[in-house]
Amino acid sequence: MWGFYFHELMRSLPFFLKGLWMTVAVAGLSLIFGSIIGFFGGIMRAGHNKPARLIVGVWVDLIRGTPFLVQIFVIFFILPGIGIELEAFPAAVIALTNLTASFITEIVAGGILAVPSGQKEAATAAGLSGYQQLRYIVLPQAMRTIFPPLVGQYVLLIKDSSIVSAIGVVDITRVGWLTVQRIPEGLMVFGLVGLLYFAICYPLINLSGYLERRMTVVSTKI
Amino acid sequence: MLEGFNFRIILEYMPLYGKCFLATLWLSGLSLFAAIMLGVISCAMRLSHSRILRGIAGVYIESIRSTPLLAQLYFLYFGLPTVGIMIPEWVTGVIALTLNSGAYYAEIIRAGIQAIDLGQIEAGIASGLSYFQRMRYIILPQALGNTIRPMLGQAIILVKDSSLLSLISIMELTRAGQLLTSERFMPTEGFLTTAAFYLIIYYMLKSFSSWAEKRLIFREAY
Amino acid sequence: MISFKNVNKWYGDLLVLNKIDLEVAQGEVVVICGPSGSGKSTLIRCINRLEPIQKGALIVDGMNVHDRKTNMTQLRAEIGFIFQQFNLYPHMSALGNVTIAPIRVRNIPKGEAEKLGRKTLVRVGLGERIDSYPAQLSGGQQQRVAIARGLCMQPKIMLFDEPTSALDPEMINEVLDVMRDLAKGGMTMMVVTHEMGFAREVANRVVFMDEGTIIEVAPPNDFFTNPQTDRGKYFLSSILTH
């Protein structure tokens, strides 16, 4: 019996690989869009404009204070109420982008605030404008603090992307859920699901750790 | 969207929300307690001198960190019955949450201990303190201060993670929102109310975190 | 060139600058000294509005520094500021550091700015270090790059906030040499420092401050040999004994 199910599972492998691709795609798109939005969000959050800081702060708090599952239900079920009809895949990308952007906002803001204030003073004393300071002095230095957590962010994204299976997006988790209806061997099916996630996440986690260690070494040299 | 916001429905469902709010608190609280204990034990194993213990803890922690909670939850939910373990869904849910957060707690505690200045431990050794004395008077008190914030952060994550239990039909806050959606076609009222309850828990935990930090920092000044 | 008229500054309830009246003429070199917390760094940081003032008037090169309508970019281009912690931009070479402001603020074309940059770096003795990064330079070299960075803007005034306090003793002189040169060349300078030898040699006047107030102003020889006030005497006795 077990052998039969195992055989069936192996025959479903292409289905799993399609799910894998879906996971990577959803997470990847969200990472790209989320990074762009988060980048600007971070600059606003670390800036002098108080209302902007406040609004971004409230947005980040709302996202951090509620479960992602609820957020994706809100986007998928409630937006149609105000006229925006969404299919599962775009809704998933929007929700995940929103989530990513909020995390990256905090990472970028942290990186900007970590640049020693002496740098900003020197730039001010030299007469550089706010924009010039950001562009030539602050951001280049902030990038070193910002880059390593970004890789870790992708890992988080891949894991959170499993939740979009709840609105029907056919990612690795959903493939597992659908498969287990036909092949009632939960351990085998979700063992495979776990393996696939592990194969992506484990190397990325190690890469992120490696980058964080390298960055710390470089800063202490200066 | 807001013009048609049906407050009466929410009032009607308030008893349900109340029960679900308590359910969320109960499920999260129980899992949190168990997860912290599991985390302490796993961390001790991870830092022990025995390669076997280190290995077991390592496999456990890395598998959890590299796979999504939802996949872990489904693994237990669909897998346990196939090996003859028949337990109520809520127990499955609590086990999944415990195993998941336990691994992250193990890492948090490990980081807190390793962040302690080696020089202090050497001073302890030099003055003749035993391993347990060093643990008790030097290492653990400082580790406590280091880890309070990340530990409360993980607690917040755990509460949000509990929303996934709704996907295996457990009656908690997110499920209440799903019910309002399926029974009355009111996802807006349903999920926004759910979100509001989660935000209450979030802000409660955040203020507890600030209060706890202040009290502990004062203690460290000794 | 620089004129303080009844300048007062508070940090919250704490009065840090108390009724400051001071005139600095073009080409003058003024050294400011005093115990820590006396407000001397705060004083010069107000000149290019790194710090705001609450009362009084600060006029620099005819412009009111703390007037909202003043074009700060224009004003700051005329003032070079040297920090105790150097504050060089770590991600740019020495040449990059000295040319960024001329290119972006004065809008000088890159080629011209680099020529000027190289000349200035040679002038401060760093001709061989033009392409080095701050991390590769010693403290004294970094501070000299910082001075070159200020000079490249061709300012009318140079302000120095304890320029040698963060340096190892053997590097102090290389920086003071550059500053001496500047002074002899006729630059208007205000220098917060403990280096009394330097003050004696090039300063026109020494301003002694304590607790936010100017206590004594005198030519260096007068002040060092014959301080008029008790606090001045006390200060000199405590620093000259080592």
Protein described:
The complex is a heterotrimer of chains A (222), B (222) and C (242). By secondary structure, chain A is mostly helical. Chain A has 9 helices and no strands. Chain A is 83% helix and 0% strand. Chain B is mainly α. The radius of gyration of chain B is 21 Å and the shape is flat. The mean pLDDT of chain B is 87. Chain C is built from 9 helices and 10 strands. Chain C has helices at 40-47, 72-77, 94-104, 110-123, 139-151, 169-184, 196-202, 220-225, 230-240, and strands at residues 2-11, 14-24, 29-33, 55-60, 63-64, 79-82, 157-161, 188-192, 205-210, 213-218. In chain C, the strands form 2 sheets. A 6-stranded mixed β-sheet of chain C has the order 6-7-8-3-9-10, with helices on both faces. In chain C, helix 4 packs across helix 5. The longest helix of chain C has 16 residues, at 169-184. Chains in contact: A-B, A-C. At the A-C interface, helix 6 and helix 7 of A face helix 2, strand 6 and helix 3 of C.
In brief, what are we looking at here?
The complex is a heterotrimer of chains A (222), B (222) and C (242). Chain A has 222 residues and is mainly alpha-helical.
Layout of secondary structure:
The complex is a heterotrimer of chains A (222), B (222) and C (242).
Chain A: H1 2-11, H2 13-45, H3 50-65, H4 68-78, H5 88-114, H6 117-125, H7 130-160, H8 172-182, H9 186-221
Helix pairs in contact in A: 2-5, 2-7, 2-8, 3-5, 4-5, 5-7, 6-7, 7-9, 8-9
Chain B: H1 7-46, H2 51-65, H3 69-79, H4 89-114, H5 118-126, H6 131-161, H7 173-184, H8 187-220
Helix pairs in contact in B: 1-2, 1-4, 1-7, 1-8, 2-4, 3-4, 4-6, 5-6, 6-8, 7-8
Chain C: E1 2-11, E2 14-24, E3 29-33, H1 40-47, E4 55-60, E5 63-64, H2 72-77, E6 79-82, H3 94-104, H4 110-123, H5 139-151, E7 157-161, H6 169-184, E8 188-192, H7 196-202, E9 205-210, E10 213-218, H8 220-225, H9 230-240
Parallel strand pairs in C: 3-8, 3-9, 6-7, 7-8
Antiparallel strand pairs in C: 1-2, 1-4, 4-5, 9-10
Helix pairs in contact in C: 3-4, 3-5, 4-5, 5-6
